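Can you give me the bound-state structure? Components:
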Amino acid sequence: MNAANRSHFVYVTFIRTTLAKLWEALTEPQFIRQYWFKTTVECGWKKGSLWKMTRPDGSLTDTGEILEIDPPRRMVIRWQNEWKSELKAEGPSRCTIELEPVDGAVKLTITHEIDRPESKLITAVSGGWPRILSNLKSLLETGEVAITTHPGH
Amino acid sequence: MSDADLLFKALADPGRRKLMDRLHAHDGQTLSELCQHLDMTRQGVTQHLAVLEAAKLMAVQWRGREKLHFLNPVPLQEIYDRWIRKFERPRLKALRDLKRRLEEDGED
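Here's the bound-state model for the whole set.
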């Protein structure tokens, strides 16, 4: 796919933790809820598992499927927005999550992409990810999160 | 140098801030694309990109033989959480207290 026909971003954070601990933080619903603005994730974390995010009131935010998974290093999620019609209309995106140990820390790389130019979905998620990653880093390194509510929800 | 020192040093240069603006306008550019429209030598841009990368303000991905540069805003969020948010709170509380006091006065 030509770069001009895609929308994507690459976000990176370095977290002073272990691969196992970070993988757990990315896949354990209780953990996710703490740094992802109280969102609940349901997933079997196997290739082909359905993946679903819901707000505390039970309403859906996003759905999808695990396209690839290689614990504790990499997963690819087919990611479909479910809460805003103009974003849902863009269809599925792909979110790739990669973990790599670097000098006593773990480099976490999030690539989120969709096969269409100037995607509103990519713009919307690009605003959410930095807050989520900053919260996740803070939670793993200090035991506390900085932001508890999502301004967009 | 600590992560925070690298970050503030990287931000303390107008040329690097301009590069960040270019990436914000159009993410995932090659070095050649970044050099267009910029009044900097290719070598200068390369050096600035290295400082931005060391500060984690930029991420790099290879697509075939092309090296693409992406803005990484996560450290900016960390600055916001660490250096802005906590200083905002007392001011917001002061405004809220003032509003309450004025409204209470109005009820007298």
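A couple of observations. Chain B has two domains: 1-72, 73-108. The domain at 1-72 of chain B is CATH 1.10.10.10 (Arc Repressor Mutant, subunit A).
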